[in-house]
Amino acid sequence: ENNIPNAENQVQDLNEILRVRREKLDNLIKAGKNPFEKVKYNRTAYSQVIKDNYALKYGGGFYSKYSEVSLTNSEVKNNVSKDYGGGIDFENSNKINIESVTVQGNNSKEGGGISFFNVTNAYLKDVVVKGNTATKNGTVWSNLSTIKWDNGLISGNKASIASAFYIKGRSETVLKNITISGNESTSGSPIDKASL
Question: For residue 124, which of 12, 22, 142, 149 is within the disulfide window of CB 3.0 to 4.6 Å?
């Protein structure tokens, strides 16, 4: 009998937890804040080597959602994800800055190196994407995203469609001084703009 939990005490504990949560929500509303607003995080990585990782779904090496990210002077290599972004996956984010980064030897279904979904204001500079594999579309994959990329290399990547860059949906992509060479696709060109 002594080991049987007292149901009445458990109900009282739950009621107290609910009372405290209601009070916190009421205080946020009174302060004019939306308690259900998505929280955005700022992430900064400098001089990192992100390698040999595995993800069941997104971002084998680096995954970011609802965030502002700065990734500089780093390597993202030999990572695997089952679905998107073998090396890096960004989702529903703003102000992404990737500078002097090498994304190499990563693998996933889509976006073997990097994938962007619903990302605004992504800026890449001096980024190298090489030796990545996508079993379906693009070693760099973009959907509903705005990307500006200055100075870089997309080389030696493999994908079924668009071995270099797969652009889907209402994406806006500006590439300046990017060398695209030695990429292999079983169908389509190295860069493919999918229909809406």
Answer: 149
Contacts of 111 (CB under 8 A, 6+ apart): 84, 85, 86, 89, 134, 137, 138, 139, 140, 141, 166
Q: Give 42's strand partners.
A: 68
State the Cα angle at 44 between 41 and 45, rounded to 5°.
140
User: d(Cα 50, Cα 47) in Å, to the nearest integer?
Assistant: 10
Q: How confident is the model at residue 195 (pLDDT cuts 50, 70, 90)?
A: very low
Exposure string over 102-115, b if 16+ CB within 10 A, otherwise e: bbbbbbbbbbbbbb
Q: Say if CB 138 and CB 164 are below 8 A apart.
A: yes
> 143 to each of 31, 44, 149, how far by Cα in Å?
37, 24, 16
Angle value at C-alpha 177, between 126 and 117, nearest 5 degrees: 65
Phi-psi region of 126 (alpha: psi -120 to 50; beta: other; left: phi over 0): left
* Per-residue pLDDT reduced to its tens digit, 65-112: 988 999 999 999 999 999 999 999 999 998 999 999 999 999 999 999
Q: The whole model's pTM is what? A: 0.78
